[in-house]
Amino acid sequence: MSTPFSTPFLSAFLPDLALLVLALVVLTTEIVFRKHQARWTARVAVAGLAAVLILLAALPLPSGGVAYAGYQVTRSVVVWKQLFALATLATILLSRSYFRNGHSLRGALANPGAFYGLLLFSTTGMFALVSARDLLTFYIGLELATLPLYALTALQPRNAGSIEAGSKYMLMGAFASALSLFGISFLYGAAGSLGFDALAKVASAQPSLSAQPFLLAGVLMLLGSLGFKLAMVPFQMWAPDVYEGAPTAVTAFLSTGSKAAAVAATTTLFLGPLNLPRIDLGAIFALAAVLSLLAGTLGAMRQSNLRRFIAYSSIAQAGYMLMAFTGGEGSEAAARIALQYNLLVYGTASFALFFVVSLVGRSAPETIPSLRGLSARSPALAALLALSLFSLIGIPPLAGFLGKFLLFAVAARNGHYTLIFIGALAVALSFYYYMRLLKEAYQPVQTAENRGAPASAVPLSPIRLSLAGKCAAALLAILLVVLGTCPGMLNFIASR
Amino acid sequence: MNSGLSWTLLALPVVPAASALVLALCGGALLKKNLYNVVGGLATLAAGISFVLALFLIPAGLLGTGTSVTLDLGSWIATESFYAGLKLNADSVGTLMVLLVTFFGFLITGYSVGYMRNDREQGRFFASLNLFVASMLVLVLADNLVLIFLGWEGVGLCSYLLIGHYWNERGKDQDVPLAAFRAFFVNRIGDLLFLLGVFFLFAAFGTISLSELSARAASPHGFGVMFAGREWMAVLAAFLLLGGAFAKSAQAPLHVWLADAMAGPTPVSALIHAATMVTAGIYLVMRLDWLFLAVPQARFLIAVCALVTLVVGAFMALTQNDIKKILAYSTLSNLALMFLALAAGSSRAAMLHLFGHAFFKALLFLSAGSVIFSAHHEQDARKLGGVLKSLPVTRAAFWIGCIGGAGLIPYLSAGFFTKEAVLESVREATFNGFGLGVSGHVLYWIVLGVESLSALYLFRLLGYLNGESREKTAQVTDHSAHHGAHGAHDHAHDHHAPHESSPAIRLVLIVLSVAAPLFAWLSGTPKLTAWVTGGLGEWEPMQWAHVAPFLVLNIVLAGVTYVVFSAVSRREAVLSALGSLRWGGRGPLDRKFWFDDLYAAVIVLPLKVIAWVLRLVVENVFIGLLHLAGLIGRGASRLLRRQQTGYAHHYAAAILLFLTAAAWILLWRRG
Fold first, then answer.
1. What one-character-per-residue DSSP string does A138-167 give?
2. Maximal CA-CA distance, chain B
3. Is the separation of the CB atoms in B160 and B184 below 8 Å?
4. A253 — pLDDT class (breaks 50, 70, 90)
5. Does some domain include residue A88?
6. Nearest to B354, CA basis, from B373, B372, B336
7. What band does A488 get if pLDDT is binned at 50, 70 and 90?
8. Is B637 within 8 Å of A302 when comparing Cβ atoms?
9. CB–CB contact A238 B662 (8 Å)
């Protein structure tokens, strides 16, 4: 039994503490640095996050993990935390240019301390979320991960879209919080305790569902609250509006880090204590997956706004990931690995996409027609876009293929072949909407003028990448290829 | 477990692959700055580093009997039922192949620096050449069949790219893109068979790791356990894999691409289509020898196909006039010899001849390249009368190559002892399969007879090139026509008298002219041979009594041929006398033994019919379905947009609706 001050627990707990301290430090940087605030704040945050990542990778962990009271750290938890930290790191790197004037048509961001601080608090919340061993810690983690995002969404007060998005997000978020609190109280009622162990014991001992309406109500309400975070249908409706209104870097974080946290939370609960063979939640997840695939696919088809497009694309991707929860008993480990691999791959492709969007968005609105002529403006950037889209579709040998394969394999364990068929159909349809972006990027500009499109809106100056930008692009491209061609990485993830 | 030496296995393919990447990305930029030698130099350096690394493998991989160098990089594809590791392995066969590939890769890349020096697309050329070396190394080092397939496809791709190197040269006597396509297409047939073979092998044995497979085969009750109930799968796998090997190593009926492949630059013909890539099929059969030993029908099929190829190659080589085509057909029949040795169950003889052939054929091709380069890309032997007289180094190299290829002088010709080993192995064996049986003695006499044709065709070629010139002025008028096509040729040449080409070419020719006899001497020393092919069976002392009469016969044949063909008047008298044998251009030799007609009838025509039908179906049915799907999708998308109202209370209502529905489903399903 670990005590709070024993070495293994401290060393497992250290990254979370370090992240909390980092968030507090970053908040104060605005006072310390008078000049180049944004730059210095970002540097501090990046250095700190790098340290947290190193701590996560280097600190030893007993094979069974460590646990104390409502908090636990296992290998799987560490992988989740690494994913969150990576997403945050990438978001910070992406957001740096938005603090400079002239790097976005929507105007520069202000308050770097608040921006980065909130981002890091949200990450701290995610850390707590995946380490939770009781519902209270879980709820606090969930709220801490979500609350800063409302503020981040509304961080451009002069932009009406940003304000609308922030308020809408917060309204729906409050609704989701209410749901989860209700759900937790019902579960407490059913189990008589907030701890996961007690919950699992009570849940697995139930002879029939109708005997335990509390349990059912609690499970469904928690599912609703997590569905909101996941942007799964029908809890997805906030997503296009919020993705459109939020600052670009925040949108990137919402669709990667926040989504990873939602998936991790769903995994923690529904592949953990609430993995109930008696309650056939697989059917509900399958239904939600089908609906998400449908809504995401159909919604993305006719979008011209890139952010709304990404929102629908991420809804469809959530649909694929929901398939991992339909595997039933015995598939928990496979599902967890599939999800972690998928989030890593999806995050990489997303950041590649956002990287392109952020560069195109400097001088043009963030719409699909603005991508026109990208291959002429910067062949490398167009190639990166192509790689990222191919990976999102799931074309071998890119990483996305293996990700989808693993998810489908989990669904196949429980015989959900209809679901897999619909998933495959959605992949085929996703060709259409992802290829629209690529078509624009590789379309010669003359054709656009012939069609009478507003060619004047598209400045065709070549896009020049800074050295850091080139390195980032190369790193993303290599990751997309290597993750797909060396599936042995999976074992690496699993063995961590 | 991975020692320092192991990592050289990784460095071997990675170095040329990295160089290929650099050249592919920056080659064009370097050429724009006129840094021609940097491009070729980098490629040569990379191949050279690989060669030096390969030398380090000799002590452990070759000299230590039964040991091998292994590098295990963990898993590559791992699922519950299928496993493919990233494991490289150099045992004695692997080390020999690595040495062969890197040695010739290095020499021929260096040769290309001279040969390609005026080519504007050198970046592409050298990138492909380096990539070829890397892929070939992956092929020979890989420990499982999927990784082998990676190298297999890689060399196929590079072969396609390099055959098509002069893709934009029209007006020559052959269509370069078509030649490249044909090579690729035939190889695709082989690749498909290979892949299917791997599937069946996996189905039969549950593993694709070569070391595991052969270890199981070697265990005392290995075969009983392995084949239990799955014999047909193993037999099918053997035949399918053989199809892949035949396509890569140009054996009948999949040999038709090799002669066309001569459309590529000559160094490519020497490296890929003589010394290394075309031996991949032989390497594969050698690796799976336990399988072929257990399936005698497969060995019988090898013997039949190899015999056909041997005859076709030797006779076709007799009538060709293009220097490179003569050599290509000679390659066919030499590859057939290696397959015959494999059919006889002697990997040792096959390996020995593989090396011998690599030495003399590379030498022949490279000297031919030197001739062609000096004569401004003229390849017709009849128009190159006496060209060797002004090229002393090339002449010496050509002589050594011809003597080597015809196997005339023991301890000097690289092909003598190696062919001898093949013949001995054939004589000792019997070939049974499909209810038929052929004694090795019969085959031995046939092969011996056909092989003496090699003295004929090689010395006929030598007679042309080293003898009298028919029209002294022909060269000048003729090659001027090709100038436009080849772009920036070096016009410093004296057009009337071709002279020795660049120093890089000469240097490589000299090195090989020394190396080939050296190998011949080594191959004739039983102890050395046994030592080098230590992993591949016992060495039997050669029986000079069997050989001596034929040696004399061959020397006489070669001498007579040379004398006849070196003088114009004698040459034409003989040719006109033989002309009546050619059936007015419709005989087997002019129709390439009807293999092209066979392909047109069996493969091309059905494919065209299928394509025509599919086009009808696609244009009339599928396009309509697509339009329908588009309409449905558009309608559904519109419906979906309508419910995205933007009002938060609508969103909340949808959530509650779903939760209620979910609760109802769960309770209803439970009853």
1. HHHHHHHHHHHHHHHHT--TT-HHHHHHHH
2. 105
3. yes
4. very high
5. no
6. B336
7. low
8. yes
9. no
- CA torsion sign for B135, B141, B145, B146 is negative
Boundaries of every domain in chain B: 1-143, 597-670
A486 interfaces chain B, CB cutoff of 8 Å: yes
Whether chain B has a CB inside 8 Å of the CB on A7: the answer is no
Under 8 Å between Cβ of B356 and B414: yes
Please give the backbone phi and psi of residue B74, each rounded to the nearest 5 degrees, phi first: 85, -160
* Backbone torsion region of residue A365, taken as left when φ is above 0, otherwise alpha when ψ lies between -120 and 50, otherwise beta: beta
How far is residue A226's CA from residue B324's CA, in Å, rounded to a whole number?
71
Q: Which residue has the tokens 């670009």?
A: A248
By three-state DSSP, how is residue B495 classified? coil
Residue position matching structure tokens 């190299």: B397
Share of chain B above pLDDT 70, in %: 88
What are the tens digits of pLDDT across the range B357-377? Answer: 999 999 999 999 999 888 887
A475 pLDDT higher than 80 = yes
d(CA B651, CA B377): 76
Virtual torsion, Cα A371, A375, A380, A385, nearest 10 deg: 40
Q: Report DSSP state, residue B71.
A: E
| Range of lowest pLDDT (A223-227, A287-291, A395-399, B305-309) | A395-399
Domain that holds residue A357: 280-496
Residue B88 in tokens: 């490289």
What DSSP string runs through B26-47? HHHHHHHTT-HHHHHHHHHHHH
Among A175, A234, A487, beta carbon nearest to B78: A487
Q: Closest residue of A to B643, CA-based?
A: A237
Using CA atoms of A26, A32, A35, A36 in order, give the dihedral in degrees to the nearest 10.
-20
Which residues lie closer than 8 Å to B168 by C-beta, 6 or more apart?
A: none
Confidence of residue B487 (pLDDT cuts 50, 70, 90): very low
Average pLDDT of every residue of chain A: 86
Of B633, B634, B662, the CB nearest to A284: B662
User: Looking at the DSSP assignment, which residues form a beta bridge with residue A72?
Assistant: A67
ipTM metric: 0.78
Instruction: Specify burial of residue A348 (Cβ count, 10 A radius: 0-12, 13-18, 19+).
Output: buried
Check if the beta carbon of residue A274 is closer than 8 Å to that of residue A186: no
Residues of B with CB under 8 A from a CB of A: 73-78, 86, 633-634, 636-638, 640-641, 644, 646, 648, 650-652, 654-655, 657-659, 662-663, 665-667, 669-670
Shortest alpha-carbon distance between residue A24 and chain B (Å): 34
Residue indicated by tokens 């091709």: B365
Distance CA(B53)–CA(B47), nearest Å, equals 10
Closest of B389, B383, B364, B258 to residue B321, by C-alpha: B383
Q: Which among A171, A227, A488 has CB closest to B648?
A: A171
Q: In total, how many domains does chain A have?
A: 1
pLDDT of residue A1: 46
The string of pLDDT tens digits covering residues B271-311 is 988 889 999 999 999 989 888 888 888 999 999 999 999 99
Q: Is residue A150 in a domain?
A: no
Model confidence pLDDT, tens digit, residues B564-621:
888 888 878 777 777 766 666 667 777 777 788 888 888 888 889 999 998 888 888 8
CB B143 within 8 A of CB B88: yes
Burial of B635 (0-12, 13-18, 19+ CB in 10 A): exposed
